[in-house]
């Protein structure tokens, strides 16, 4: 009877239909078959504690907003800015809806995208009116932008709150609005995002970033010159993005006041409740951060992360950060980004290490994206271990060895070695 009840719970639990990761589905099934519910033996007290932590992550820290001056922002063209805020069309809405996965789990509204696809002819006029009103006011009501946070166990014997993976379930109507906006934004990102960023920009692919990184490391090794690679981990990257900073960056990059108002409307109307054993526990409004699962989030995060690139390029321009010299033209390369996966290439000069550390500290303070140094690593090229350990101590990170995994593929290994057998 217990097993039957647990399996019914699995089938009815919406997030498992939504998650494309079969591993988490497998773990959840095993977890329930062992006689656990989604929270298992966790008491309500630690769940409330985690909720308090989550609320803290969703609220903006106190302090005056910062503005950044003196960077090359590469603003979008006036034509692109006008195109972004043009009236929404029925064809645009139709295309967005039918590009979406019809069976992903619903949010608080209870509707899947399949409802909008199957009932398109009936509801299309109402949807067009919704978009027209949003175009005029830039406001999304709170019920449309409500979200459930669901906790999925990362492993079978999950006991601590850190053993669970939070997933956001968003209403389908909001996802449609965000999908249309994301489609427009994607079309202009190539104008303003630096070439060191490989994610969510048309014409750039994940394999490009991996190949470039391997070429840079291999050439440095062959040259016999000393150097270091610094791979960082942002602490809860999406959760900590400052909305004020994002708005400032959009302004500097040439986005119109109306578009910025739309983005603010999409973000400021967000509210969350944590689902515990299928029941919503409390609601909290967000004042910072981007939601996982929001079609806009990857593109907005890319815009924020681009500021780090611009700051590093300014440091190179002022000759306070060297980077690696690669290619026949000795082109200087200091970093590569793929969404929040960032690696830095630096000389072994202590001055460069301090410059890099200070840039990361300043960027974290103004953007909210702080580096988790406990999960960040530095790797030496043609460098003695003692020297590498000293540099790691300066950066407050770990000194590690090659090869490493970068975007899921080996970086810095011997191409003839067995380490590349996974390919």
Automatic annotation (TrEMBL):
Q: Which domain of life is it from?
A: Eukaryota
Q: Tell me where in this chain the Reverse transcriptase domain is found.
A: 133-411
What is the recorded name of this protein?
Answer: Transposon TX1 uncharacterized 149 kDa protein
Report the source organism.
Vitis vinifera (Grape)
The record's listing under InterPro entries reads: DNA/RNA_pol_sf, Retrotransposon-Effector_Assoc, RT_dom
The record's CDD domains line, in alphabetical order, gives: RT_nLTR_like (cd01650)
User: Which residues lie in coiled coils?
Assistant: none
């Amino acid at each position: 009877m217990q097993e039957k009840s647990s399996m019914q719970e699995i089938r009815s639990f919406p997030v498992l239909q939504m998650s494309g990761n079969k591993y988490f589905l497998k773990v959840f099934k095993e977890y329930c078959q062992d006689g656990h519910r989604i929270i298992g033996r966790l008491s309500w007290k630690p769940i409330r504690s985690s909720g308090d932590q989550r609320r803290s992550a969703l609220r903006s820290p106190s302090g005056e907003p910062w503005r950044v001056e003196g960077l090359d922002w590469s603003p979008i063209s006036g034509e692109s800015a006008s195109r972004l805020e043009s009236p929404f069309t029925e064809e645009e809405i139709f295309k967005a809806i039918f590009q979406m996965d019809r069976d992903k789990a619903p949010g608080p509204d209870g509707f899947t995208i399949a409802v909008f696809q199957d009932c398109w002819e009936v509801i299309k006029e109402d949807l067009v009116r919704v978009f027209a009103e949003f175009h005029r006011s830039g406001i999304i009501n709170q019920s449309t932008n409500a979200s459930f946070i669901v906790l999925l166990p990362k492993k079978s014997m999950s006991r601590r709150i850190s053993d669970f993976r939070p997933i956001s379930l968003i209403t389908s109507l909001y996802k449609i609005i965000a999908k249309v906006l994301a489609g427009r934004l994607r079309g202009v990102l190539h104008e303003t995002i630096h070439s060191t960023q490989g994610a969510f920009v048309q014409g750039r692919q994940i394999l490009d970033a991996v190949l470039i990184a391997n070429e840079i490391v291999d050439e440095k090794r062959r040259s016999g010159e000393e150097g270091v690679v610094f791979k960082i981990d942002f602490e809860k990257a999406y959760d900590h993005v400052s909305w004020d900073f994002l708005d400032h960056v959009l302004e500097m990059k040439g986005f119109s006041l109306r578009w910025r108002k739309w983005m603010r409307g999409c973000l400021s109307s967000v509210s969350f409740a944590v689902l515990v054993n299928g029941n919503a526990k409390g609601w909290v409004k967000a004042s910072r951060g981007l939601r996982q699962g929001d079609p806009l989030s990857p593109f907005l995060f890319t815009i924020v992360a681009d500021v780090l690139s611009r700051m590093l390029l300014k440091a190179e321009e002022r000759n306070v950060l060297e980077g690696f010299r690669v290619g026949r033209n000795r082109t200087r390369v200091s970093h590569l980004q793929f969404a929040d996966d960032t690696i830095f290439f630096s000389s072994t000069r202590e001055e460069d290490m301090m410059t890099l550390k200070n840039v990361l500290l300043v960027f974290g303070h103004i953007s909210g994206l702080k580096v988790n140094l406990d999960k960040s690593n530095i790797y030496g090229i043609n460098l003695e271990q003692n020297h590498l350990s000293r540099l790691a101590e300066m950066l407050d990170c770990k000194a590690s060895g090659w090869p490493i995994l970068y975007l899921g593929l080996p970086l810095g290994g011997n191409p003839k070695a067995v380490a590349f057998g996974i390919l």
